[in-house]
Structures are given as structure tokens and as C-alpha cells.
Amino acid sequence: MQRSTRIILIAAGLFIGVGLIIGAIAASINKARTGNILGLGSLDMTSAGERKTVEINEDFSDVEILEISNDIQMIPTDDKKARVEYTDHEDIGLIHNVEVRGGTLVVELKDDSKWYDHVGINFHGFGKEYDDKPLNVYLPAGDYGTVEITAVSSDITVDPIKADTLNITVTSGEIKLDECTVGNAKINSISGDMDLSKVTASDIRLNATSGKLNLDGLTASYVKLSTVSGDMSLRDFDSKSTDINTTSGDVSGNLIGEYNISANTTSGDVNVPSSSSTGNPMNINTTSGDIDLR
């Protein structure tokens, strides 16, 4: 056996041995804590959680939400007071904090779970299920200041809301906005799609890596759209000034009003309306994506 091959085999054996030791330690800890020697996997064998509702009695103008994987829904309510519905898993250290802090309604998930809570084998459908009910934030009608939502893998839905600023950042979840009126909006996602319906904004900027941008009835003074491979669909699109950038995503849809369009692509096809020198400026840049606007 060659010396290099012997070294590789020894190293592989060491890695396997270390992995078995870590697994045994995690299994022992989980056995002591939960009676389940197989571990907790993605936590859905541990706790059904406790559903809670908090009524907000203090005044606030801003909203800040920090979540990990539970879906987030912002829902209008006819009540005069806001309320928040969520699920806590106190036995494993997943606990929400809900409070009004300096005029801001803060809803944040504090993850105090241990590393071994996430190690083990998960057989979905056996034992207790991890509660995946959404985090619901009910807001009375009114004009809000800054609404900021940050999450990892949550789907986010924002129903009719009026706000000066709307900032949303999510890694892989889908984002849906319906009949929202905002001043400035910045929405960022890596792999989740964005669906906006009848949104009105002064300045709106959407950035996605591989997610699609589906805009239906967007009205804005300025729009900036950016994707790498995600397609963009613009339906009844009405913007005073627009910048669109994508690498391989297609751009399609229909425009409201007259536009002065500058469309640039390396290998994609281009089909756009005739430009008007006095029309709303629209700059489109893509490498291999097609451009088809009416």
C-alpha cells in the first residue's frame, strides 16, 4: 500500500471515530434530557410548543420582527389594539420576546437551545411534531413609521399596511405584499420568490438571487429590480423611473404610460415598445435573459 493511500485511510478513520464520539455524546445527552436516544433532529420530535397571544397596550409607531423559520404574517385588524400570536418551545430554549421598546413593537425569537438539540436522527411523523404555526402580528389601521422584518427561512406575508419605510430581509422564504402603501421599501431574498400585488411606493428596491419577482399593479416613483437568475414579471407596471439588472433572468410584462427604454442584452432577445424621448426612463441590463415588454 502506498504511503499516501495509508495516510488518507488513517485520516478517514480518525474523522469517522470523532464523528461517532460526538454522536454518542449527543445521544447520551438527549437520552438524559428527553428519553429519546435518537436525538431531536430538526426539533420536531421534542415539543409541540405552547401557543401564546399577547395584546399590546402601549402606543407604538414602528415594528421590528426577528424570526428564524416560522412563517410571518402581518394582518390588519379592526381592533384598536395590536396583538401578537406565536409559539414558544420553552423546554428547548426557543422563546419569543414581545414588547414595546422606545416606540417600537419588537417581536424577536431568542434561540437559547443547545447544540445537541440539533443533533440526531429525525423520523418525521413519530413523536411530537415541531409546531410550525405562523407568527401572526395583527395591526390596527393607521400610518406606521418603519416596519422591519428579518428572518432566515420564513415565508413572509404583509397584507394592507401603510408605512413610511418597509425593510424585509430573508434568506430562502417567499415574500408576499398585498395592497401596501409605503414610502421607501427595500426587500432582499436569496432564493425566495417575491409576489407584490397593488403596491404603491415612492422608492422601492427588490433584490433576489435566484427568486422570481412577480409584480402586479406596482405604482412607484422609482423602482430598482435586481436578480441573478430569477425572472421578472411586470404586469400593469407604472413607474416614473426604473433600473432593472439581471444576469440570466427574463424580463416580461406590460407597462402603463410612455417610457424611454434603454434595453441591453448580450445574447438574449429584445422586444420592447417604441421609446418616447419624454417618457419615463427605464434602463434594463441583462446578459443572457430575454426582454419582452408591451
Walk me through what this model shows:
There is one protein chain. With 294 residues, this protein is mainly β. It has one domain: 3 Solenoid (Pectate Lyase C-like), CATH 2.160.20.120. 11% of the residues lie in helices and 49% in strands. The chain is built from 1 helix and 22 strands. The protein has a 22-stranded mixed β-sheet that branches. A hairpin with a 2-residue loop joins β5 and β6. The chain starts with a helix and ends with a strand.
**Biggest sheet overview:** 22 strands, mixed
Total strand count, please? 22
> Hey, roughly how much beta strand do the residues contain?
over 45%
CATH architecture: 3 Solenoid
Summed over residues and divided by their number, the pLDDT gives a mean of: 86
Name the poorly predicted regions.
Answer: 37-46, 120-129
Query: From the helix content, strand content and strand pairing, which structural class follows?
Result: mainly beta
Instruction: Report the radius of gyration as a whole number of Å.
Output: 24 Å
| CA-CA gap between termini | 69 Å
Morphology = globular
Reading off the top of the CATH hierarchy, the class is best stated as Mainly Beta
Q: Please, how many helices?
A: 1
- Structural domain tally: 1
Helix and strand run: HEEEEEEEEEEEEEEEEEEEEEE
Give me the oligomer status. single chain
Share of helical residues: 10-25%
CATH topology: Pectate Lyase C-like
